[in-house]
Amino acid sequence: MLFMKERRPAFRTIEGWARSVLLEASAIRERDEHGWMTDRSDPHACEQALLVARQDPPPGVSPDDAIAVVRDLLNSTGDTCPECPPEE
Description:
Blueprint: H1 14-24, E1 28-30, E2 37-39, H2 43-55, H3 63-76
Helix pairs in contact: 1-2, 1-3, 2-3
């Protein structure tokens, strides 16, 4: 008899889901040198990420809560890498 395991979601936390939404929308990017996430300051990408959060929140999460988490993560992401030297 073949048993099927229930598949886990690709993310484990709501913050992980929000990060993947922001990355797919190109609102943030991962710095190759150090792995930090930086804000791309693209208003269209941010709007796209919020639209995805509203229309397709993770299971068990309301659209309003999904939008709040995406906004919180976006607001906590800087536009410079903390480990890179400042550009002059």
